[in-house]
Amino acid sequence: RDAIRLRSVTRTYGASDGAVTALNDLSLSFSVGTFTAVMGPSGSGKSTLLQCAAGLDRPTSGSVLLGETNLTTLNETQLTLLRRERIGFVFQSFNLLPALTAEQNVALPLRLAGRRTGRSQIQDALAQVGLAGRATHRPGEMSGGQQQRVAIARALITQPEVLFADEPTGALDSTTSRDVLTMLRTMVDEQRQTIVMVTHDPVAASYADRVVFLADGHLNGELKSPTAAAVA
Ligand code: ADP
Ligand code: ADP
């Protein structure tokens, strides 16, 4: 079963005379419970792929299916709701709210979705990322790796169908990166979480089940059960 599926997705930017084709007739699917790394040179369309797949951007043509839902037929209000309820996003720069504690940051998506925020649910989510003792700390009082783990707990608190991660280890040292990647791997293995991660790092990609390579907005090969050496 596909968690998410892109069908002939094209995304162009700018006027027709100076248009840039960021994605060029790209078709790609991501199965439920799999961890995929997306790699490719700068400008190959990785961010655009993530943004179109996550409902943050709209393809110029083609369609994006999340389960049975065709994102391209939704209006902005529906898309906003879908992102809140069915999609999680993690960024290179963590994007936590600095004035809020770890537990307040994690609770935020539930509040935005108008759901009840049980304290034990938040505690469990923080414990799952190894931060049970940091609930009342603010981002400025935590290391980069701890902040990214809070961001992962926040992204997963609504139990999204897909977690998108854009260079989640790009700001972390290699030891901390491995901790974060091990955590993501565990979520795939133990909870059948679907993860799509953009990365430049072959070591990060080796934690995935599959690597897809982009070049000039189209698919340029893929590898199953990648090793860091094979990807590099
Ligand atoms: P990557 O993430 O692989 O570096 P991007 O998806 O960011 O690639 O970009 C793919 C291409 O689309 C690049 O040529 C980039 O300059 C262009 N592009 C991306 N976003 C925009 C935008 N908002 N406006 C104009 N061009 C863009
Ligand atoms: P990365 O590839 O590391 O994600 P980029 O610099 O390619 O970083 O893109 C960062 C953001 O800026 C992306 O969301 C992309 O859509 C946007 N972007 C990239 N190129 C352009 C551009 N030429 N004009 C406007 N926005 C762009």
From TrEMBL:
What are the alphabetically sorted keywords of the record?
Answer: ATP-binding, Nucleotide-binding, Transport
The protein's GO terms of the molecular function aspect are: ATP binding
**What InterPro entries does the annotation carry?**
AAA+_ATPase, ABC_transporter-like_ATP-bd, ABC_transporter-like_CS, ABC_transpr_LolD-like, MacB-like_ATP-bd, P-loop_NTPase
Q: Does the keyword DNA-binding apply?
A: no
Q: Where is the ABC transporter domain?
A: 4-232
Q: SMART domains annotated for this entry?
A: AAA
Keyword Nucleotide-binding part of the UniProt annotation = yes
Task: Output the SUPFAM superfamilies linked to this UniProt entry.
Answer: P-loop containing nucleoside triphosphate hydrolases
Report the domain of life of the source organism. Answer: Bacteria
Its protein name is ATP-binding cassette sub-family A member
